[in-house]
Amino acid sequence: MARIMVVENDDRLRELLQRQLAKLGHEVFAVADVAPALSCGWTGELAIVHLGVPGGGWERLGIPVVGTSGEPRHPSVPPGVVDLLRKPYTLAELGEVIGRHTR
User: Fold this and answer.
1) In this structure, are strands 3-7 and 46-50 parallel, antiparallel, or unpaired?
2) Taking residues 51-72, what's their average pLDDT?
3) To the nearest whole number, what is the mean pLDDT of the chain?
4) pLDDT of residue 74
5) Has residue 72 got a pLDDT over 70?
6) Torsion over CA: 99, 19, 44, 30 (sign)
7) Which pLDDT value is given to residue 73?
8) Helix, coil or strand: residue 98
9) Cα 80–16–53 angle (5° rounding)?
10) Where are the domains of the chain?
11) Contact indicator for 81, 66 with CB cutoff of 8 Å
12) CB 27 within 8 A of CB 5
């Protein structure tokens, strides 16, 4: 399975997503913003980033980024993001996106 970073500033959603990905067999590194991931040198295959997280910075991760958003202000995929999941999304949709962007 894949090494996946979850960047979500809502603690409840971050923990839920971390548990669901772990159940699917993925190794998960979950943080509230991108800065800790950049400072610790984490490496992985994919990042799932809530586009509303303050500070941005996902383009500096050096791995494919799947954005998540429930906001209508993200009508298309922003630069540096390979795919966009609209909240709420299903576990099946999440799995499909992960499959498209990991080995």
Assistant:
1) parallel
2) 84
3) 87
4) 56
5) no
6) positive
7) 63
8) helix
9) 35
10) 3-71+83-101
11) yes
12) no
Cα distances from 99 to residues 45, 67, 74, 75, in angstroms, run: 11, 15, 23, 23
- φ, ψ for residue 77 (rounded to 5)? -75, 120
Q: Which amino acid is at 48?
A: I
Q: Is the pTM of this model over 0.85?
A: yes
**Residues 6-25: tens digit of each pLDDT:** 999 999 999 999 999 998 89
Pull the structure tokens for residue 21. Answer: 């990905």
Contact present, 83 and 77 (Cβ < 8 Å): yes
Q: For the domain 3-71+83-101, what is the CATH superfamily, name and number?
A: Response regulator (3.40.50.2300)
Token pair for 65: 């980024």
Give the up-direction half-sphere exposure of residue 99: CA atoms within 13 A in the CB hemisphere: 7
